[in-house]
Amino acid sequence: MAASHLPDSYYASILSESARSRRANPIRKVYHLENEPGVISLLAGKPNTTMFPFTSIKFTVSPTTSPDYPERIRTGQPLKSEGDQRTEIELTGQDLEEALQYGQTEGSARLLDWLHGLQEHLHGRSRGEGWRMSVGVGSQDMLYKAGTALLNPGDYVLIQAPTYAGVIAMFDSLKCNLVDVPNDSSGTRSSDLRNILSSWPADRPKPKIFYNVPFGCNPTGITTTEQRKREIIELSREHDFIIFEDDPYFNLYFGDAPRPPSFFQLEKSMPTKDGSPNVGRVLRFDSFSKLISAGMRMGWVSGPTPILNAIDMHSGISSVHSSSLSQAMLVALFNSWGLDGFDAHVRSVSTFYRAKCEVFAAAMKQHLDGLAEWDVPEAGMFFWFKLLLPPGPDGESDSSDLIQTKAFKNGVLALPGIGFMPDGRKTPYVRAAFSLLDESDVNEALRRLRETLLKDREDHSGETSAIPVAERKIW
Protein backbone atom coordinates (compact mmCIF):
# COMPACT_ATOMS: atom_id res chain seq x y z
CA MET A 1 0.00 0.00 0.00
CA ALA A 2 1.12 3.59 -0.62
CA ALA A 3 2.47 5.60 2.28
CA SER A 4 0.99 8.93 3.27
CA HIS A 5 3.23 10.66 5.77
CA LEU A 6 2.55 13.19 8.48
CA PRO A 7 3.43 16.78 7.43
CA ASP A 8 6.68 18.32 8.63
CA SER A 9 4.67 20.88 10.60
CA TYR A 10 3.39 18.11 12.88
CA TYR A 11 6.85 17.56 14.38
CA ALA A 12 7.49 21.23 15.15
CA SER A 13 5.21 20.97 18.17
CA ILE A 14 6.80 17.82 19.60
CA LEU A 15 10.48 18.79 19.31
CA SER A 16 12.12 19.56 22.64
CA GLU A 17 13.08 23.04 23.78
CA SER A 18 16.71 21.99 23.40
CA ALA A 19 16.21 20.90 19.79
CA ARG A 20 14.29 24.05 18.88
CA SER A 21 16.93 26.33 20.41
CA ARG A 22 19.98 24.53 19.02
CA ARG A 23 21.97 26.47 16.41
CA ALA A 24 23.47 24.59 13.50
CA ASN A 25 27.23 24.41 13.02
CA PRO A 26 27.64 27.03 10.23
CA ILE A 27 30.23 24.91 8.42
CA ARG A 28 28.25 21.68 8.66
CA LYS A 29 25.15 23.51 7.44
CA VAL A 30 26.64 24.12 3.99
CA TYR A 31 29.16 21.27 3.91
CA HIS A 32 27.23 19.38 1.22
CA LEU A 33 27.65 22.29 -1.22
CA GLU A 34 31.26 21.24 -1.74
CA ASN A 35 29.91 18.47 -3.95
CA GLU A 36 28.24 20.86 -6.38
CA PRO A 37 29.84 20.59 -9.86
CA GLY A 38 32.26 23.38 -10.69
CA VAL A 39 32.50 24.74 -7.14
CA ILE A 40 35.95 25.59 -5.78
CA SER A 41 35.66 25.23 -2.01
CA LEU A 42 37.46 27.40 0.52
CA LEU A 43 35.06 26.21 3.19
CA ALA A 44 36.27 23.52 5.53
CA GLY A 45 39.55 23.21 7.40
CA LYS A 46 40.21 19.69 6.21
CA PRO A 47 43.67 18.21 6.60
CA ASN A 48 45.45 17.40 3.36
CA THR A 49 45.19 13.66 2.80
CA THR A 50 48.68 13.50 1.31
CA MET A 51 49.96 14.01 4.85
CA PHE A 52 48.19 10.91 6.19
CA PRO A 53 50.64 7.98 6.58
CA PHE A 54 48.27 5.32 5.21
CA THR A 55 48.71 4.26 1.59
CA SER A 56 46.24 1.37 1.64
CA ILE A 57 44.07 -0.52 4.09
CA LYS A 58 43.47 -4.19 3.43
CA PHE A 59 41.19 -6.60 5.26
CA THR A 60 39.83 -10.07 4.72
CA VAL A 61 36.38 -11.41 5.47
CA SER A 62 35.24 -14.95 6.16
CA PRO A 63 32.59 -16.74 4.10
CA THR A 64 28.99 -15.57 4.55
CA THR A 65 27.60 -19.09 4.83
CA SER A 66 28.51 -21.55 7.58
CA PRO A 67 25.80 -24.24 7.67
CA ASP A 68 27.92 -26.39 9.97
CA TYR A 69 27.89 -23.91 12.88
CA PRO A 70 25.57 -26.05 15.05
CA GLU A 71 27.80 -29.10 14.63
CA ARG A 72 30.96 -27.07 15.28
CA ILE A 73 29.43 -25.64 18.45
CA ARG A 74 28.18 -29.04 19.63
CA THR A 75 31.56 -30.71 19.12
CA GLY A 76 33.70 -27.81 20.33
CA GLN A 77 35.42 -27.25 16.97
CA PRO A 78 36.86 -23.82 16.06
CA LEU A 79 34.26 -21.67 14.32
CA LYS A 80 36.88 -20.23 11.98
CA SER A 81 39.75 -22.21 10.54
CA GLU A 82 42.64 -21.59 8.17
CA GLY A 83 40.96 -23.71 5.55
CA ASP A 84 37.93 -21.40 5.24
CA GLN A 85 37.65 -19.53 1.98
CA ARG A 86 38.15 -15.81 2.52
CA THR A 87 37.69 -12.61 0.53
CA GLU A 88 40.33 -9.88 0.49
CA ILE A 89 39.17 -6.25 0.26
CA GLU A 90 41.45 -3.24 -0.12
CA LEU A 91 40.82 0.49 0.25
CA THR A 92 43.05 2.64 -1.98
CA GLY A 93 42.92 5.87 -3.98
CA GLN A 94 39.77 7.97 -3.70
CA ASP A 95 38.05 5.37 -1.50
CA LEU A 96 40.92 5.58 0.98
CA GLU A 97 40.99 9.38 0.90
CA GLU A 98 37.29 9.51 1.77
CA ALA A 99 37.80 6.92 4.51
CA LEU A 100 40.48 9.05 6.18
CA GLN A 101 38.78 12.45 5.75
CA TYR A 102 35.96 14.35 7.42
CA GLY A 103 32.54 13.40 6.05
CA GLN A 104 28.88 14.35 6.02
CA THR A 105 27.16 14.52 9.41
CA GLU A 106 24.39 12.12 8.37
CA GLY A 107 26.84 9.59 6.91
CA SER A 108 28.54 8.92 3.60
CA ALA A 109 26.27 9.06 0.56
CA ARG A 110 27.40 5.63 -0.59
CA LEU A 111 26.61 3.98 2.74
CA LEU A 112 23.25 5.74 2.97
CA ASP A 113 22.38 4.58 -0.56
CA TRP A 114 23.16 1.01 0.46
CA LEU A 115 21.15 1.33 3.69
CA HIS A 116 18.16 2.74 1.81
CA GLY A 117 18.24 -0.37 -0.36
CA LEU A 118 18.49 -2.52 2.75
CA GLN A 119 15.49 -0.86 4.43
CA GLU A 120 13.42 -1.38 1.29
CA HIS A 121 14.59 -5.00 1.09
CA LEU A 122 13.90 -5.80 4.76
CA HIS A 123 11.02 -3.46 5.63
CA GLY A 124 9.43 -2.43 2.33
CA ARG A 125 10.14 1.26 2.93
CA SER A 126 11.08 3.42 -0.06
CA ARG A 127 12.40 6.94 -0.50
CA GLY A 128 9.84 9.70 -0.83
CA GLU A 129 7.75 8.61 2.15
CA GLY A 130 8.75 11.46 4.47
CA TRP A 131 11.63 9.66 6.12
CA ARG A 132 15.40 9.44 5.84
CA MET A 133 18.38 8.01 7.74
CA SER A 134 21.43 9.08 9.68
CA VAL A 135 24.46 7.03 10.68
CA GLY A 136 25.80 7.32 14.22
CA VAL A 137 28.31 5.97 16.69
CA GLY A 138 26.18 2.90 17.35
CA SER A 139 22.41 2.95 17.84
CA GLN A 140 22.90 4.07 21.47
CA ASP A 141 24.27 7.37 20.14
CA MET A 142 21.22 7.78 17.93
CA LEU A 143 18.84 6.87 20.78
CA TYR A 144 20.31 9.53 23.04
CA LYS A 145 20.17 12.20 20.36
CA ALA A 146 16.61 11.26 19.43
CA GLY A 147 15.59 11.43 23.08
CA THR A 148 17.23 14.83 23.40
CA ALA A 149 15.43 16.00 20.26
CA LEU A 150 11.97 15.13 21.60
CA LEU A 151 12.02 15.21 25.40
CA ASN A 152 12.02 18.01 27.92
CA PRO A 153 12.75 17.48 31.64
CA GLY A 154 9.63 16.15 33.33
CA ASP A 155 8.16 14.58 30.18
CA TYR A 156 6.63 11.12 30.48
CA VAL A 157 7.98 8.14 28.54
CA LEU A 158 6.19 4.83 28.07
CA ILE A 159 8.71 2.03 28.39
CA GLN A 160 8.39 -1.75 28.24
CA ALA A 161 9.27 -3.38 31.55
CA PRO A 162 11.67 -5.02 32.04
CA THR A 163 13.83 -3.30 29.46
CA TYR A 164 17.38 -2.50 28.35
CA ALA A 165 19.26 -1.08 31.33
CA GLY A 166 21.27 1.38 29.23
CA VAL A 167 18.18 3.21 28.05
CA ILE A 168 16.84 3.54 31.60
CA ALA A 169 20.00 5.45 32.48
CA MET A 170 19.64 7.51 29.30
CA PHE A 171 16.08 8.61 30.05
CA ASP A 172 17.06 9.30 33.67
CA SER A 173 19.80 11.62 32.43
CA LEU A 174 17.16 13.51 30.43
CA LYS A 175 15.13 13.83 33.68
CA CYS A 176 12.10 12.02 32.28
CA ASN A 177 9.37 10.21 34.16
CA LEU A 178 9.21 6.55 33.12
CA VAL A 179 5.89 4.74 32.91
CA ASP A 180 6.25 0.94 32.94
CA VAL A 181 4.27 -1.13 30.44
CA PRO A 182 4.50 -4.84 31.37
CA ASN A 183 5.72 -7.57 29.02
CA ASP A 184 4.61 -11.14 28.67
CA SER A 185 5.73 -13.96 26.37
CA SER A 186 4.16 -12.16 23.35
CA GLY A 187 5.86 -8.83 23.99
CA THR A 188 4.54 -5.60 25.44
CA ARG A 189 1.01 -6.08 26.72
CA SER A 190 -0.95 -3.75 24.47
CA SER A 191 -4.04 -4.09 26.68
CA ASP A 192 -2.07 -2.64 29.59
CA LEU A 193 -0.75 0.14 27.35
CA ARG A 194 -4.33 0.97 26.35
CA ASN A 195 -5.45 1.04 29.98
CA ILE A 196 -2.59 3.35 30.95
CA LEU A 197 -3.40 5.80 28.19
CA SER A 198 -7.19 5.63 28.56
CA SER A 199 -6.93 6.51 32.26
CA TRP A 200 -4.24 9.17 31.82
CA PRO A 201 -4.88 12.20 34.06
CA ALA A 202 -6.44 15.08 32.14
CA ASP A 203 -4.11 17.64 33.76
CA ARG A 204 -0.94 15.83 32.71
CA PRO A 205 0.57 15.89 29.16
CA LYS A 206 0.47 12.46 27.58
CA PRO A 207 3.74 10.67 26.75
CA LYS A 208 5.42 11.53 23.46
CA ILE A 209 7.36 8.25 23.25
CA PHE A 210 6.91 4.52 23.68
CA TYR A 211 10.27 2.68 23.87
CA ASN A 212 10.67 -1.03 23.14
CA VAL A 213 13.07 -3.70 21.88
CA PRO A 214 10.85 -5.93 19.69
CA PHE A 215 13.22 -8.79 18.76
CA GLY A 216 15.12 -10.81 21.35
CA CYS A 217 14.56 -8.07 23.89
CA ASN A 218 17.44 -7.28 26.19
CA PRO A 219 16.99 -8.65 28.87
CA THR A 220 13.94 -10.90 28.40
CA GLY A 221 14.70 -12.49 25.01
CA ILE A 222 11.05 -11.87 24.06
CA THR A 223 10.06 -11.28 20.43
CA THR A 224 6.93 -9.15 20.07
CA THR A 225 4.22 -10.70 17.91
CA GLU A 226 2.79 -9.02 14.81
CA GLN A 227 -0.62 -8.70 16.44
CA ARG A 228 0.81 -6.84 19.43
CA LYS A 229 2.70 -4.52 17.10
CA ARG A 230 -0.46 -3.75 15.13
CA GLU A 231 -2.31 -2.93 18.34
CA ILE A 232 0.52 -0.64 19.51
CA ILE A 233 0.59 1.20 16.17
CA GLU A 234 -3.17 1.80 16.45
CA LEU A 235 -2.62 3.18 19.96
CA SER A 236 0.19 5.46 18.71
CA ARG A 237 -2.27 6.99 16.26
CA GLU A 238 -5.09 7.25 18.79
CA HIS A 239 -2.96 8.73 21.58
CA ASP A 240 -0.39 10.56 19.43
CA PHE A 241 3.00 9.16 20.42
CA ILE A 242 6.21 8.14 18.61
CA ILE A 243 7.37 4.52 18.74
CA PHE A 244 11.09 4.13 19.45
CA GLU A 245 11.81 0.79 17.77
CA ASP A 246 15.22 -0.17 19.16
CA ASP A 247 16.03 -3.29 17.12
CA PRO A 248 19.67 -4.44 17.37
CA TYR A 249 18.61 -8.11 17.40
CA PHE A 250 16.33 -8.01 14.34
CA ASN A 251 18.86 -10.02 12.32
CA LEU A 252 19.49 -12.43 15.21
CA TYR A 253 16.03 -13.98 14.88
CA PHE A 254 16.11 -17.78 14.85
CA GLY A 255 12.52 -18.77 15.63
CA ASP A 256 10.78 -21.55 13.70
CA ALA A 257 8.00 -19.27 12.45
CA PRO A 258 8.70 -16.58 9.82
CA ARG A 259 10.22 -13.44 11.30
CA PRO A 260 7.44 -10.97 12.25
CA PRO A 261 7.45 -7.64 10.38
CA SER A 262 8.89 -4.57 12.06
CA PHE A 263 6.91 -1.60 13.34
CA PHE A 264 8.60 0.37 10.55
CA GLN A 265 7.14 -1.99 7.93
CA LEU A 266 3.74 -2.40 9.55
CA GLU A 267 2.86 1.27 9.86
CA LYS A 268 3.05 1.58 6.06
CA SER A 269 0.84 -1.48 5.53
CA MET A 270 -1.87 -0.33 7.97
CA PRO A 271 -4.36 2.25 6.68
CA THR A 272 -5.74 4.71 9.20
CA LYS A 273 -9.39 4.55 10.15
CA ASP A 274 -10.08 8.17 9.16
CA GLY A 275 -7.89 8.35 6.07
CA SER A 276 -5.23 10.52 7.76
CA PRO A 277 -1.50 9.92 7.07
CA ASN A 278 -0.44 6.40 8.01
CA VAL A 279 3.35 6.77 8.41
CA GLY A 280 5.58 8.98 10.51
CA ARG A 281 5.16 7.62 14.05
CA VAL A 282 8.03 5.11 14.05
CA LEU A 283 11.64 5.99 14.74
CA ARG A 284 13.67 2.86 14.00
CA PHE A 285 17.15 2.20 15.44
CA ASP A 286 19.41 -0.40 13.79
CA SER A 287 22.92 -1.55 14.64
CA PHE A 288 25.78 -3.43 13.02
CA SER A 289 27.29 -4.18 16.44
CA LYS A 290 25.75 -7.65 16.77
CA LEU A 291 26.03 -8.50 13.07
CA ILE A 292 29.33 -7.10 11.72
CA SER A 293 31.44 -5.62 14.53
CA ALA A 294 30.77 -4.01 17.91
CA GLY A 295 34.06 -2.10 17.86
CA MET A 296 33.33 -0.33 14.56
CA ARG A 297 30.57 1.58 16.43
CA MET A 298 28.16 1.72 13.52
CA GLY A 299 24.42 2.19 13.95
CA TRP A 300 21.73 4.14 12.16
CA VAL A 301 18.29 5.61 12.68
CA SER A 302 15.42 5.75 10.18
CA GLY A 303 12.46 8.03 10.68
CA PRO A 304 10.64 11.29 9.97
CA THR A 305 12.84 13.88 8.28
CA PRO A 306 12.25 16.71 10.82
CA ILE A 307 13.34 14.50 13.72
CA LEU A 308 16.39 13.32 11.75
CA ASN A 309 17.27 16.96 11.03
CA ALA A 310 17.23 17.65 14.78
CA ILE A 311 19.43 14.60 15.42
CA ASP A 312 21.93 15.73 12.79
CA MET A 313 22.06 19.23 14.26
CA HIS A 314 23.00 17.63 17.58
CA SER A 315 25.69 15.48 15.92
CA GLY A 316 27.06 18.51 14.08
CA ILE A 317 27.98 20.18 17.38
CA SER A 318 29.00 17.04 19.28
CA SER A 319 30.46 14.03 17.47
CA VAL A 320 30.51 15.85 14.06
CA HIS A 321 30.03 12.49 12.31
CA SER A 322 30.70 8.82 12.84
CA SER A 323 33.93 7.16 11.69
CA SER A 324 34.53 7.65 7.96
CA LEU A 325 36.87 4.65 8.00
CA SER A 326 34.25 2.33 9.50
CA GLN A 327 31.72 3.57 6.95
CA ALA A 328 34.11 2.99 4.05
CA MET A 329 34.87 -0.54 5.25
CA LEU A 330 31.16 -1.33 5.44
CA VAL A 331 30.53 0.04 1.95
CA ALA A 332 33.39 -2.07 0.53
CA LEU A 333 32.13 -5.15 2.38
CA PHE A 334 28.51 -4.71 1.25
CA ASN A 335 29.50 -4.01 -2.33
CA SER A 336 31.47 -7.27 -2.25
CA TRP A 337 28.53 -9.20 -0.79
CA GLY A 338 25.51 -7.62 -2.42
CA LEU A 339 22.09 -8.15 -0.82
CA ASP A 340 22.30 -11.90 -1.42
CA GLY A 341 25.59 -12.05 0.44
CA PHE A 342 24.18 -9.91 3.25
CA ASP A 343 21.20 -12.25 3.58
CA ALA A 344 23.53 -15.25 3.63
CA HIS A 345 25.56 -13.66 6.43
CA VAL A 346 22.37 -12.98 8.41
CA ARG A 347 21.35 -16.63 8.04
CA SER A 348 24.79 -17.70 9.20
CA VAL A 349 24.66 -15.43 12.26
CA SER A 350 21.13 -16.46 13.24
CA THR A 351 22.06 -20.15 12.81
CA PHE A 352 25.06 -19.61 15.06
CA TYR A 353 23.01 -18.00 17.86
CA ARG A 354 20.25 -20.58 17.56
CA ALA A 355 22.84 -23.28 18.24
CA LYS A 356 24.19 -21.29 21.20
CA CYS A 357 20.67 -20.87 22.53
CA GLU A 358 19.94 -24.58 22.24
CA VAL A 359 23.09 -25.43 24.20
CA PHE A 360 22.08 -23.00 26.94
CA ALA A 361 18.49 -24.27 27.00
CA ALA A 362 19.66 -27.86 27.45
CA ALA A 363 21.97 -26.80 30.29
CA MET A 364 19.14 -24.86 31.96
CA LYS A 365 16.97 -27.97 31.83
CA GLN A 366 19.77 -30.11 33.27
CA HIS A 367 20.80 -27.82 36.12
CA LEU A 368 17.93 -25.48 36.99
CA ASP A 369 14.79 -27.52 36.39
CA GLY A 370 12.68 -27.09 39.53
CA LEU A 371 14.81 -24.18 40.72
CA ALA A 372 13.86 -21.62 38.07
CA GLU A 373 11.27 -20.89 35.38
CA TRP A 374 11.96 -19.57 31.88
CA ASP A 375 10.87 -19.29 28.26
CA VAL A 376 13.35 -20.18 25.51
CA PRO A 377 14.05 -17.06 23.41
CA GLU A 378 13.62 -16.92 19.62
CA ALA A 379 16.15 -14.14 19.00
CA GLY A 380 19.04 -12.29 20.56
CA MET A 381 21.62 -13.34 23.13
CA PHE A 382 19.85 -13.57 26.48
CA PHE A 383 18.00 -15.93 28.79
CA TRP A 384 15.70 -14.32 31.34
CA PHE A 385 14.73 -16.69 34.10
CA LYS A 386 12.84 -16.51 37.38
CA LEU A 387 14.56 -18.01 40.40
CA LEU A 388 12.16 -19.82 42.70
CA LEU A 389 13.32 -18.01 45.82
CA PRO A 390 11.67 -17.67 49.22
CA PRO A 391 10.09 -14.27 49.90
CA GLY A 392 12.16 -11.68 51.72
CA PRO A 393 11.22 -9.85 54.94
CA ASP A 394 8.88 -7.56 52.97
CA GLY A 395 7.18 -10.51 51.29
CA GLU A 396 8.90 -10.02 47.92
CA SER A 397 11.49 -12.26 46.28
CA ASP A 398 14.62 -10.66 44.84
CA SER A 399 17.62 -12.14 43.07
CA SER A 400 20.08 -9.34 43.85
CA ASP A 401 21.88 -10.73 46.89
CA LEU A 402 22.00 -14.28 45.61
CA ILE A 403 23.39 -13.27 42.20
CA GLN A 404 25.63 -10.35 43.14
CA THR A 405 27.09 -11.88 46.30
CA LYS A 406 26.54 -15.61 46.73
CA ALA A 407 26.73 -16.73 43.10
CA PHE A 408 29.69 -14.45 42.40
CA LYS A 409 31.57 -15.90 45.39
CA ASN A 410 30.86 -19.31 43.90
CA GLY A 411 32.47 -18.26 40.61
CA VAL A 412 29.55 -17.35 38.35
CA LEU A 413 28.62 -13.84 37.19
CA ALA A 414 25.20 -12.79 35.90
CA LEU A 415 22.92 -9.79 36.29
CA PRO A 416 20.04 -9.57 38.77
CA GLY A 417 16.81 -8.41 37.18
CA ILE A 418 16.41 -5.28 39.32
CA GLY A 419 18.74 -3.33 36.99
CA PHE A 420 16.29 -3.82 34.10
CA MET A 421 13.23 -2.56 35.97
CA PRO A 422 12.54 1.10 35.13
CA ASP A 423 11.08 1.69 38.59
CA GLY A 424 13.88 -0.25 40.33
CA ARG A 425 11.47 -2.68 41.95
CA LYS A 426 12.61 -6.02 43.35
CA THR A 427 12.38 -9.07 41.11
CA PRO A 428 13.44 -12.73 41.31
CA TYR A 429 14.53 -12.66 37.65
CA VAL A 430 18.08 -12.95 36.30
CA ARG A 431 19.63 -12.15 32.92
CA ALA A 432 22.26 -14.50 31.49
CA ALA A 433 24.05 -14.01 28.16
CA PHE A 434 24.67 -17.12 26.06
CA SER A 435 26.58 -15.50 23.18
CA LEU A 436 30.19 -16.27 24.17
CA LEU A 437 30.55 -19.41 26.26
CA ASP A 438 31.18 -22.89 24.91
CA GLU A 439 29.12 -25.86 26.11
CA SER A 440 31.46 -26.90 28.90
CA ASP A 441 31.59 -23.39 30.39
CA VAL A 442 27.81 -23.02 30.13
CA ASN A 443 27.31 -26.26 32.05
CA GLU A 444 29.86 -25.33 34.68
CA ALA A 445 28.35 -21.87 35.16
CA LEU A 446 24.83 -23.24 35.61
CA ARG A 447 26.11 -26.07 37.83
CA ARG A 448 27.66 -23.44 40.11
CA LEU A 449 24.42 -21.44 40.08
CA ARG A 450 22.47 -24.58 40.99
CA GLU A 451 24.89 -25.23 43.81
CA THR A 452 24.40 -21.68 45.08
CA LEU A 453 20.61 -21.96 44.92
CA LEU A 454 20.53 -25.24 46.83
CA LYS A 455 22.83 -23.88 49.52
CA ASP A 456 20.65 -20.79 49.79
CA ARG A 457 17.52 -22.93 50.16
CA GLU A 458 19.11 -24.94 52.94
CA ASP A 459 20.30 -21.82 54.71
CA HIS A 460 16.77 -20.40 54.61
CA SER A 461 14.92 -23.56 55.57
CA GLY A 462 17.41 -25.22 57.90
CA GLU A 463 15.95 -28.49 56.73
CA THR A 464 18.45 -30.57 54.81
CA SER A 465 15.79 -33.24 54.34
CA ALA A 466 13.99 -30.86 51.97
CA ILE A 467 16.85 -31.29 49.50
CA PRO A 468 17.44 -34.70 47.92
CA VAL A 469 20.67 -36.39 49.01
CA ALA A 470 22.01 -36.52 45.46
CA GLU A 471 21.63 -32.75 45.18
CA ARG A 472 23.22 -32.07 48.61
CA LYS A 473 26.35 -33.91 47.53
CA ILE A 474 27.01 -31.28 44.88
CA TRP A 475 28.14 -28.83 47.53
From TrEMBL:
Keywords: Aminotransferase, Pyridoxal phosphate, Transferase. The keyword Transcription does not apply. GO terms for biological process: alpha-amino acid metabolic process. InterPro entries: Aminotransferase_I/II_large (IPR004839), Class-I_PLP-dep_aminotransf (IPR050859), PyrdxlP-dep_Trfase (IPR015424), PyrdxlP-dep_Trfase_major (IPR015421). Residues 63-86 are annotated as: Disordered. It comes from the Eukaryota. The keyword Ribosomal protein does not apply. Its cofactor is pyridoxal 5'-phosphate. GO terms for molecular function: pyridoxal phosphate binding; transaminase activity. Residues 134-449 form the Aminotransferase class I/classII large domain. Belongs to the class-I pyridoxal-phosphate-dependent aminotransferase family. This is PLP-dependent transferase. It comes from Coniophora puteana (strain RWD-64-598). The lineage of its organism: Eukaryota, Fungi, Dikarya, Basidiomycota, Agaricomycotina.
